[in-house]
Specification:
The complex is a heterodimer of chains A (285) and B (150).
Chain A: E1 6-9, H1 16-30, E2 35-36, H2 39-44, H3 47-55, E3 58-62, H4 68-75, E4 80-85, H5 86-92, H6 105-119, E5 139-145, E6 148-154, E7 158-160, E8 165-170, E9 173-178, H7 180-186, E10 189-193, E11 200-201, E12 206-212, E13 216-220, E14 225-230, H8 233-236, H9 240-243, E15 252-256, H10 259-262, H11 269-283
Parallel strand pairs in A: 1-2, 1-3, 3-4
Antiparallel strand pairs in A: 5-6, 7-8, 8-9, 9-15, 10-12, 11-14, 12-13, 14-15
Helix pairs in contact in A: 1-6
Chain B: E1 5-10, H1 17-32, E2 37-41, H2 43-47, H3 51-59, E3 62-66, H4 72-81, E4 86-89, H5 90-94, H6 96-99, H7 112-131
Parallel strand pairs in B: 1-2, 1-3, 3-4
Classes of the chains: A alpha+beta (285), B alpha/beta (150).
């Protein structure tokens, strides 16, 4: 069942497939708490939709192989839970699109078949089956203190706690890790103790440990939920955290259970960037 | 002789009635206008970098139709294809309050008065097209649009 999702249709106005993509999107919103993202307005004024796409699973509906909606999602670095391409669906169902800009009979049949397929999706299913595949290609702001460079990822879906851990939230899942502040302070990280898969962790609960020759750092979970995956690479190569604590050095993935409340105690990029600068200055006196 | 062509680049708005009216009025003009060939340019594709769409708007006269005063279509056209031949701001025709109505957006919710608005806006689009100089109807250096709108 598709519910409480963000829907990004191509909304093409010049081809039948675009008109059908919009029709599917509109139908998905008629009886469920889904929300359409206007592909035009999202491109010219993204602020309006950042919260929606950050907090809800995203379904992208492309009309044709030009895949404008998918391209837009990629440009905005959005995690897509489900992709539908109307021309491919038509082919799979042996339906010839009418070619008109007002959906014709065959188009309506296709819309119904697509919707039926989506309704039969198991709840919160398989949409996110590849839990290892939350791609984190962040944009960063940096600052330098002495020879040390600190990178902080920015984006509406990234949250931080004051314990220098981050969470990248997509729908009801988050990937978590530590920030540059932690890895720079620990220096060469030698050991990683992961959290247990399946463990229920409270916000600010322990989500594993990392250790260098200097000290041990307890990873403080920014979010509440169940651990669904850990970065097993870190057990062999804990130095990945030094190399990039946000991408290759991520720690775990968590299925969120109370994010609305968790958010109240998290901060976004702007505040964390200022906080970490202060911490660095204080440390180096 | 080159075929007479005019591009119409409409808001794809999903946020307010103005967007819906723009889309329906553009479609009406496309389907019903006979004295010149109108081609809808897909705004999402145009913004995504569609070269054919952008080239069409550089060569053929193009009219933007926007649902509200954010003018997404007009601003984008000017940014990527230069000066436009005409522009319609639906909120100026049906009133800002109507245009920004976010409760009535879907076709199924439209009432006869909304279809009257569609007709009115379509009439304004036709008027804009009629004001264009006949010389500007045909592309001078661009062979075909290839935008799929035909």
């Amino acid at each position: 069942m598709i519910d409480n999702c963000a829907i990004l249709p191509c909304n093409g106005l010049d081809k039948c497939a675009g008109a059908v993509s919009r029709e599917v999107a509109v139908k998905l919103c008629e009886n469920n708490a889904n929300e359409i993202i206007c592909p035009v307005f999202y491109r010219v004024a993204e602020a309006k939709y950042n919260k929606i796409v950050g907090e809800h699973p995203l379904i992208v509906i492309d009309g044709c192989q030009t895949r404008c909606a998918s391209k837009l999602a990629a440009e905005k670095n959005l995690r897509v839970f489900k992709k539908i391409t109307i021309t491919e669906e038509a082919k799979n169902h042996n339906i010839v699109l009418s070619g008109g800009l007002t959906p014709g009979e065959s188009d309506k049949v296709l819309v119904d078949l697509i919707l039926k397929g989506l309704v039969n999706e198991p709840e919160n299913s398989g949409l996110i089956s590849d839990v290892q595949d939350i791609s984190c290609n962040f944009d960063y702001n940096t600052f330098q203190n002495g020879k040390f460079i600190f990178r902080i990822p920015r984006g509406a879906q990234i949250y931080f706690n004051e314990n220098d851990c981050w969470a990248y939230v997509i729908g009801n899942r988050a990937r978590i890790g530590v920030t540059d502040f932690v890895q720079q302070n620990l220096s060469d990280i030698l050991y990683f103790t992961p959290p247990e898969i399946g463990a229920e962790i409270d916000q600010f609960g322990e989500a594993g440990e990392i250790e260098s020759s200097k000290s041990v750092f307890e990873i403080v979970s920014p979010v509440t939920g169940k651990v669904t995956a850990v970065n097993s690479m870190l057990e062999q190569k804990p130095e990945l955290i030094n190399e990039n604590p946000y991408e290759t050095g991520w720690v775990a993935e968590i299925e969120l259970t109370d994010f609305e409340n968790d958010k109240e105690l998290l901060i976004g990029f702007d505040k964390y960037f200022e906080l970490v600068k202060r911490k660095v200055e204080e440390l180096n006196g | 002789m080159n075929e007479l062509k005019v591009g119409v680049l409409s808001c794809s708005g999903e946020e307010c009635l103005g967007g819906t009216i723009s889309r329906l009025a553009t479609r009406k003009v496309l389907e019903e206008l006979k004295f010149v060939k109108t081609v809808t340019l897909c705004l999402p594709l145009y913004l995504a970098g569609g070269e054919e769409e952008r080239n069409f708007a550089k060569v053929f006269p193009t009219i933007s139709v926007d649902g509200c005063d954010k003018l997404c279509a007009k601003r984008s056209t000017e940014k990527y294809s230069g000066k436009i031949s005409g522009s319609i701001d639906v909120s100026k025709i049906i009133g800002t309050e109507n245009a920004l109505n976010s409760r009535i957006i879907r076709n199924k919710d439209l009432k006869p008065e909304h279809y009257e608005m569609v007709d009115k806006v379509a009439g304004e689009i036709v008027k804009e097209i009629s004001h264009l100089s006949p010389d500007s109807y045909s592309g001078k250096s661009f062979g075909g649009c290839g935008c799929g709108g035909e």
